[in-house]
Amino acid sequence: MTVIDVHAHVFPAISRAESRILAGAGEPWLRVHQDGTGMMMSGDDPYRPVGQALWDPERRLADMDALGVDLQVVSSTPLMFGYAADAGRAVDWCDLVNDRILEHCAQAPDRLLPLCQVPLQDVGLAAETVTKAAAAGHRGVHIGNHVGDRDLDDHALVEFLAHCAEEDMPVLVHPWDMLAAGRMGHHMLSWLVGMPAETHRSILGLILSGAFERLPRSLRLCFCHGGGSFPYLLGRADNAWRNRDIVRADSPVPPSEYVSRFYVDSAVFDPRALRLLVDVMGVERVMLGTDYPFPLGELSPGATVRECAELTDAARSRILGGNAREFFGLDRP
Question: Which part of the chain is the Amidohydrolase-related domain (predicted)?
Fold first, then answer.
């Protein structure tokens, strides 16, 4: 079976000087140590220790060989989005990041598939960046699930998603800048609770606002981390839609009718959760995602898929690679 990981991150070796493009808005850069380890930096502040695989394509490819991954879809680390910056500076920043991602993936173009990032705080500039990135060789777009208090159901962001569909650029949505940060500063609760909630909110927002009714069906949209809380609370949303007119005011059909409009990755880490995810979404809407190379990811890519006894070999083949081939159009001329 071909194994394609659709959720794998990169943080190119961007210097402190280069990060100043963002002028006080996070200024992400990478400090590389002599022992081969590194530190993601935000301005002058350490953010998170990281390993060489995050920026070194040779190490990435060696890991892929060892882990049995045929192809990785490579997207920036969310710290790098730059959404808080002045839009003009953010365009220059995204151009820099996107060029570095292309350079990273050029080391093995048949195995590393680059996704661009965009200055999502300005939808017009974001659309221009997508068009430019597509021409340069990027195969999709990686975005955060919101920009400040604007979620994906915001009118302008819906227009941006429609532009991605027009450009035939698939969109990978990653949760970030998690809600209620003041209550989740310990035990990584922002990742364990905040991330699933952010993704759940984004999917339901697109459904209940009627955004999916306005978006073209050609849009290919994938939500990371198994769609967050959404698949496991879909029954609650359907029940609310049936019983409360304020819930169904803008969506003509129940939330469960919209699962054919988006994909999710398989990063749920438990065969029982994966079984439910496939039951809810359909086997054709789930793709392998590991969150490589971070330690909260699936360290043995595809292990959960292979350990889910209820899946047929055909279903495993689709999740491990077949669905991703369709999502990213890898078999097109």
Answer: 4-330
